[in-house]
Amino acid sequence: MLTQMKFQDVKQCQKYIEERSKNDRLVMIVRGPFGQEIVPSIHKLRQVISIYVYCFDKVRNKQWSDKFTKIKAVVTELGELITRIKADHKIHKIVEEPLCINIFTTGGTSATGVNGQFIFSQILIDCLLRLKTTTADKKELIDHCKQQYQSNTAELSNLREFREDYSPEKALWWYSRESFFYKTLNTALRNQNIHIIFLFRGFISDIHRQLKANQADDALRVYRSQMISSDELETLRQSCDQFISINSFFSTSTYKKQALSFLNSCNVGDNLEPVLFEIDANPTLVTNKPFADVSAYSEFTDESEVLFMLGSIFHLKSVTRSSDGQVWIVRMTLCSDDQCDLKQVLLDMKDQFLSSEVNLQTLGKLLWEMGKHDLAEKYFMRFLEQLSPDDPLLGDLYHDLGRLASNAGNLDKSMKWRQKAIALKKQKQPTSKSTIPKPSSSTGKFIE
């Protein structure tokens, strides 16, 4: 768990839940009387995924709790409670976490609309993978996680192990492990927390290299079960024959029955729809976003897990009901960003932002183009701190900071950066020496 909260007051507890983001996922453990009072009020909230009643009187509490589908168990023993939570969490981690996608609509050209989001997400991933990492970045990430898990002794122990023993060949092992690494990274990807993704970029790059080294040799058909909202389902239904990108690592299984069994354990209702993704992936057609069987790195080696790289692009072929009408089947094919509809626009964007050496100024310019001005300034300033006073990139960075401030309407700050750029330019100009004017051979006049 990321955070453990305790409440004695029903209203305070309900207020806390309602104020959480709809992307948050909460597990509740309630005593009998407390649960009987609060569950009817919070059961329909999407943030709440599971409720466990931990009590002395199992029979009595089963009577009122049976009508609530999110109540997973009524238990009287602590060991049984822990076992149930672990087993259910394994399922929820895959099935009920929100799926973050971008859609590329054929024929669309907007740089700020859905196509813009799709393209920028692809360029941002490429940019982050090319950025060099520093020990300061790793320290900042660890400090952030320490703050998040300051009361969790198990995760603090994991953090110590990570700090001391992490190596690039362990990246997939850390990602597959149930620890702060997976939870923090996936939360950042899901919520598009760009700075945390930035701090993780070296580890994302390590995962990319491991997936590429273990790239599947043969074409595969894999499956992914997912609970999605009715609105999300309708968006997919309206996007058939378009391209979608997944803004996270995408875990799948070669076992269809296993994927379907996960859906049977989940809550249907609350505006959620059960979906089975059926994906065909051919490694000979894809070069830049690898996928691989990562079962050997997982705690659950018998699950035949195939992991797709962050930002993988799929062609959405169809969205139909299963033959028994119980599940929606979403059929997709993995594709490359060299597909004809995507190739030119991605090439143009890469030429604009990634044609030369990638640094923090590159990232800042990309974020600026995405409309994230505060973040752009953050990385410009971070880059400024790294440059020496005589670095040839300094003048251009001053100009970018000035233009960014001007766009934000801060003319005083803009003038400050422009003056710095002018002063630097004058400083670099060679000192003029007095010279005797040379006569022109044709006119006898002096020329300079």
UniProtKB/TrEMBL annotation:
Residue numbers spanned by region Disordered: 423-448
Annotated ranges, domain ADP ribosyltransferase: 182-324
Bias kind Low complexity: ranges: 429-448
Superkingdom as given in the UniProt entry: Eukaryota
GO cellular component, one term: extracellular region
Pfam family, one: ADPrib_exo_Tox
InterPro entries associated with the record: ADP-ribosyltransferase, TPR-like_helical_dom_sf
PROSITE patterns, per database record: TR_MART
Stated name of the protein: ADP ribosyltransferase domain-containing protein
Phylogenetic placement of the source organism: Eukaryota, Metazoa, Spiralia, Gnathifera, Rotifera
